[in-house]
Amino acid sequence: MRLACGELPGWDVCTVDNIAAARKVLEQQHYAVGLLLDRKGNLESEDIERFLQHHHQIRWIGVFNGDLLHRPQLREAIATHLSDFHTLPVDTVRLYHSLGHAHGMAMLAKSAPPHKRQSGSRHIDGKSATICRLRAHIDKIATVDAPVLISGESGSGKELAAQEIHAQSPRASGPFIAINCAAIPPSLIHSELFGYERGAFTGAAKEKQGLIEAASGGSIFLDEIGDLPLDLQASLLRFLQERTIYRVGGTRMVSVDARVITATHVDLPKAVAAGRFREDLYYRLSVFPIRVPPLRERKEDLPLLTEIIFNKFADEKSPQLKGISKQALRAMTQHDWPGNIRELINRMRRAMVLAENRLIMPEDLELAPQEDAIILRDGLDNSRGSAERAAIWNSLARCGNNISQAARDLGVSRMTLYRLMAKHSIAP
Ligand SMILES: Nc1ncnc2c1ncn2[C@@H]1O[C@H](COP(=O)(O)OP(=O)(O)OP(=O)(O)O)[C@@H](O)[C@H]1O
C-alpha cells in the first residue's frame, strides 16, 4: 500500500508502506480520512480487514486494480469497510472530490477525535453535575486516611469509585484488594479476611496471610459489607480501632496498615435498626459516606458512556457497524437502567455483535419503547412473546448474566429460565 503524498496539495498527509507502519502512526495520531493503494487486492486478507475494523472511525477510500474487482471477497470487503473506491489509473479530479467528501462526512460525524482515556486520567467517566460532584468529593477524601462507606445501586460504579479513591491517595503505589463479602461462603470468610495459623483447622498445613494483611500499605475494599456475619463485624471493628488483627487459630497480634473502603447497596441504617449490623461499626465505617448516583439520575452521561463503550469493544463489533443511531440514544434516555452501567455495557456489547445495520438501533439494544406499536403490529401472541423476551433480557442485564439471580428475580426455576432463554435464542 502506498500513497504518493506530493499529489495531494492542501492535505496534511502521512505516507506509510505497510499495515504495521500504519498501526504505529495511528496509535499516535488521529486522521479523519485514509487512502489505501492496494494494487494486489490485499484488502480481502484477514489482517487488513482486522486493521480496518479496528480503525473504523477513519473514512477509508481504496484504490485498486480494476481487473481484481470481480473477486467476491474483495467486493464484499470494499462494501463493508470503505466509503468509496477508485480504479487505476486514478482520475485525480474524482479522487480529490472523493477525499473532500469523506473528510466532510468525518467532520459532520464527529467534531472531536474519539474519546481516549489519557494515562493518569479519571476512571469514572461522565460530565453530569452529579458525577462531577462525586469526583470532586473523591479528590478531597482520597488524601485523608479514614474509612469511606460507598453506597449505591448494583452496577452503578461503587468499586470504580473505590479504585479511584485508592488511585488518588498517598497509598496508590500499594495494593488495592477488593473482596465481595456476599460472594464468600460464611464458613470461609473469617480465614479469607484474617488468614490462619498452621494447624488452625484440619487441612491448615501452612500458615496463610489473610486479605486484610495482604492489603498492608494499600487499601482494602469490602463490597457488600452489609452481608458480613455479625461475629466478623466484631473482628473488623477491632481492626479499625486498633489496626491489629488475629489470624484464625492464632494468639499473636499482627499489625496491619490498610485503609478500609466499604460499599453497600442495602440501607445500612435500616440493617442497624433491624439488629443485623453493628451500630458502632457503622459509625466507624462511615467517617466519609459517599453515594454513587444511579444511571437514571445522570442520563445526560449516556452519549459519552456509549461512545466510550463503543470504542472499548470495537474489536468485537460487526464490521459494517459505524455507530449508534439517534433513535437508540432516545430509547436509552427513556429506559430506567435498573442494572446501571453494567446493564449499559451488557446491552451495548450484545448490540455491537448482533446489529445488522450501520448504526445500532433500539431493537439491537432490546430497548423498543413503543410497546403499543408492538401490540398493534404483532398481535397478542407475539406481543406476549416480546414481553417475555424483554423481561428475561432485562433481568439478565440487571443481574450481570447471573442465571440463578435472574431466575430468582423473575420468580422461575433455573431450569425454566434456561428453557425460556433457549426458546427466545438468548445466549447464557
Ligand atoms: N462512570 C463510569 N464510567 C465508566 N465505566 C463505569 C462507570 N461506572 C461504572 N462503570 C463500569 O460499570 C461496571 C460496573 O461497575 P462497578 O463494578 O464499579 O459497580 P458496583 O456498583 O461496584 O456493582 P456491584 O454493586 O454489583 O458490585 C464496571 O465494568 C465499571 O468499569
TrEMBL record:
PANTHER family: TRANSCRIPTIONAL REGULATOR-RELATED, TRANSCRIPTIONAL REGULATORY PROTEIN. It comes from the Bacteria. The keyword Iron does not apply. Keywords: ATP-binding, DNA-binding, Nucleotide-binding, Transcription, Transcription regulation. Residues 124-353 form the Sigma-54 factor interaction domain. This is DNA-binding transcriptional response regulator, NtrC family, contains REC, AAA-type ATPase, and a Fis-type DNA-binding domains. GO terms for biological process: regulation of DNA-templated transcription. Gene3D superfamilies: 1.10.8.60, Homeodomain-like, P-loop containing nucleotide triphosphate hydrolases. GO terms for molecular function: ATP binding; sequence-specific DNA binding. Pfam families: AAA_lid_14 (PF25601), HTH_8 (PF02954), Sigma54_activat (PF00158), VpsR (PF20161). SMART domains: AAA (SM00382). It comes from Massilia yuzhufengensis.
